[in-house]
Specification:
The complex is a heterotetramer. Chain A is mostly helical. Chain A is about 80% helix and about 5% strand. Chain A has one domain. The termini of chain A are far apart. Chain D is an all-alpha fold. Chain D has 13 helices and no strands. Classes of the chains: A mainly alpha, B alpha/beta, C alpha/beta, D mainly alpha. Chains in contact: A-B, A-C, A-D, B-D.
Amino acid sequence: MELFLAQLVSGLSTGGIYALLVLGMNLITLVRNVVHHGFSHTCIFTMAVGWLVYNKTGMPWLAFLAMFAAGVLVTVLSEPLFRPLSKRGADLETIVLAMGIGIILSELIVNFFNSGQVLSFNDEMKIFTTKFQVGAITVSVASIVALVACVVIAIIISTYLFKSSEGRAMRAMAQNLRVAKMLGVPFGKTGVLGFLIAGLLAACIGVICIMCLGYCNAEMGDSFATKAVILMLFAGQGDIKGGILSSILMGVVEAMALAYLPGRWAEAIFYGFMMVIIIIKPNGLFARKAKN
Amino acid sequence: MKKVLAIVIAVMMLSSLMAGFAFAAEDGAEGGAVAVTEWEIPVLSAITGPVSFVGEPAIWAANYAAEKINEAGGIEGVPVKIVPYDTEFDPQKGMQYITQLQDTALFIGGCVAAPVCEAEAQVLYEEHIPNIGSYVSSALDEYAPYICAYMGDSEILDLELCKEWMAAKGYEKLVMFYSPDDTAQAATVDRFAQEVPEYLGAVEVPTGTIDCGPLAVQAMNMGADAFWLGCRTEEASKVCKELVERGAVESGEQICATFSAMGAGFLEIAGETAEGTYAYNMLDVNCPDETWQELSEAYKADHNGDAPTYPPIQGFYNMIVALKACFEDLGITGDPAVLQEEREAIAEWLNNSPEIEGCQGTFSWVNGVMQIEAPVVQVQDGNYVVVTME
Amino acid sequence: MEQTNTLLKIENLSVYYGPICAVKKIDLEVKQGEIVAVLGANGAGKSTMVNTIIGLMKAKTGSIQFDGKELTKMRTDQIIQSGISVVPEGRGMLSEMTVMENLQMGVYHHKVDFNSNLEMIFSYFPRLKERQWQKAGTLSGGEQQMLAIGRSIIGGPKLLLMDELSLALSPLYVDNIFKTLVQLRNEKGFTILLAEQNARKALQYSDRAYVLDLGKTVMDGRSSELMDDPFVQKAYLGA
Amino acid sequence: MSSGLAYFITLVIVYILVVWGALIPFRAGLLYNGTVYVMAIGGYTAGFLSKTFGLNFWLCIIAAIITGLIFGFIPALGFARTNGIVTAISSMALIFIIQSIIKNIDFLGGTRGLRGIAKVPALPWFAIIILIIFGAFLYRLFNSRIGRAWEAIATDPQMAQTLGVDTRKMTVIALTLSSVFAAVGGAVFAFNIRVIYPGTFSFTFLLNVMTMLFVGGRFTQWGVIISAPLLWSINVYMPEAVQKLSNYIFAGLLIIVLMLRPEGLVTRKMILSVKNFFKGLFKKKARETV
């Protein structure tokens, strides 16, 4: 029982991180019909920038500021790369392009930050280091903060996307670029705005990952990216609520698999399960009705 | 008919293109030939990539050794030059270099990473090229006499340390944490299962596990009082942290880590929880030996004051030193006409070598296994300190 | 309906798709409060003309004057902002969004009172009110066309461009929709430019018409006169 | 031929075969990332048979084709139901699944890898023969009824359906044939590198394949024949400093080509003009001889 509870708690906190990543992916699909495989790499990149700034200056707030700047810079600079593809309506190619962006970011982390070694953060950057201990069960304040932040950010983003006129315009552009243009949505400006928000979110995820994990390296980008992309499809592209639910669910499932199944099978089970569900329900687990 | 002709023409174009490319490329590949005016020693190492923290110092040490030898007049009066090849921890890349080198190289040094080495070993054995790299004993037997290990055999040493440690502390039940992706560790686990009576079981730590809490709890549920960390540094440090924080161990002494687990960042991530943990470092960082002190100073000067901590430094230094002894002992000429004979002679010599003066005392090889002191270290106040197991 | 105020004036307009000329030296004029139809078969250049007016395609030569502004040098969003609305070919639904959201998108660039205009739209198209929370993709063809028209007039545009309004609709629906358009013009004073393949209906409900063929204007005049023209009857009305 | 060169040529041919494997689904309007998964299966089949039973090269290749057909067909049945983006992403998961499965199979060497694959001295020549056979097959395939059906699906799936094309069946055929190419590529790869690990068939490999596909041109089968040797030579024959940048170069080229030259280096137009040139040449000659 103790084992089970410990796993549940661990799974929830891992799920919180997945949920944020999936949220970011969903944001980008909703503002520009792109499955951004490189989004996770962007998050890790902001962490690396934060690490570098902190180690050079010793000022955590400056590091956090730099993280937000880096997140915004990366996403806003990558937005024009997607433009010609979106104009052509080449949705499949955008996936490949996003992978390309991911590799470049990973390579940058390997080459320019601590020569490819693990970047670990100290307590000043982690902010919340308190932990509650009940037997083998550890509940850290950081993971509670992560879960709460996840829900709050999701509410803010979905309110913005679904209730504000700018948000609507972004979604319109992702659904049908031509029609959105005919309705007067400025293509460049709205796209940049959407990616800017995604950049801020990437930095937020970076900060939360620093709090919860306390370290990062280039490989993390890859392993997060594929999981997050598949989780997003699993819940249904653009389904914010479903994305969060299924991320947390998968976080728990993964923790349970680690505990009760041989570790080597965990990955096969994780991906196999999701693939089967995706093939059975191509529009997402939470999709009520297939498109007509 | 026309269609067939068009296909034939296209195929011809294709093959001529390939051939043209091939000939153009052939010229570039000639660089690896051994010139008699200079000993070009190709050395493979993961200079960049995920294990660069081991690979870069290693290649540095090889270069340092070459410099030292050249200062003293080279090998038989001919200077040595290290030609580095960066495998990036990718067996495919390593194989590519080996195939480029296999027609001309007298000796190939490295690599520092087990997967790359195992990929190489087969070709090295078939082509009879002597090599010193990172091997465990099972591979050494299979490909004798052409490959040697540049440091003590971790498979055997780990086992010995583990037995000593458990006997000295009186621990009764052992759980291993290991990475299923590490080929060398997989071999060690098999060995432990057979030879350590206190062995309870292994916990697989998949690469990139985010939260190691579940794994720690799993090990605790097995009821062990001793924990062996064989997984990669990144996960090992987290497992160590979880074990201590969740109260699985009373002190760090109940945890023992292998060399691969105690890589860069272990102390940073594990922090205070690493206190008291044991490990083999296979390298005595504070060895009073004069050569080592000199090397250490030179290393610090080149690396912003960071001290050398990884055993391949010693291993790669010793490799070049051994090569000098070997070449001089055998009177190697480097003449391409007798390449095959000289390769075989070098391999035989290295595989069971006489005592050679290294940077931390003497060393030798017996059936390719390096015979060298491997000190036990313990984390004390955030530093590795050499200790002895009572 | 005698207004002299010219709202849209196209002069000497040519548009190319790469080397292919889609629109050749067209002149066209729309006056305030008129319903003007542009007729022609598939590939005559009607849609190209509409797309060029709203800036989705670039003109090679010629000018488009709208309300005193030169449109050929403006971006699409600026053109829309200056008071032109489009009902795109194929209705252009944002199918993942609800009917309400589609209507809200219609006022993206127009500073108007959304709620009162919404009432107006619902009074013309009561079906939309019933389905306002449904996703646009689930509507029937006729309802989608209503939504497209509603979305284009909700922002109170000065000029309404309609591309292939009658495409893939039953004849009864087509009549209904054209009647609504005339009603809108009479009651709200909209100016409408129709690009239509269905010449009979278009001539029936419009004031004036232009006939395009292979990118050139071959005829223009009052709709009632064109209706009786033997060439038009033979080529476009199938008489 | 020096061994370095032989290794290079064989590896380039492996890449060409696998890229062709990725090209076939693209003809049918699909982005299929499962090629690397089938490559692993083909590679392990060939490697295992060669090591354990000492089968010769050609028998191993035939075995790889058979396993490729089987293991390509199974996921293809699933992917026939899904749309483009879902197929692209979820087929990526296949790579992780197969890696994980191979790690758990002891007779394939598990994480320790499969060693002891026989040495084939004439490997580059064999590879060239395979390349020519499969290249000719691909050429015939693209100009066959099936090829035209794929093209119709890629242009407009709904229209293709109204023309009587069974899109599901065609998708299954495309993915299965793609798997055969990838499996053969994997088998040749195994004989070339002679030690295979589950981790060899990784995401990085997929990205190399994608770069070669897009840079070479994904509308013709000829593009990759130029792009694969050019790109891979960056990794082998360029100065060390350039080799270090190879990942940046690959990713950068991929992005630039996707943005600015969607057809890639070799376009359909170029192939057409080359064809016409040769046709013209033959006609003239024919006239002269008459």
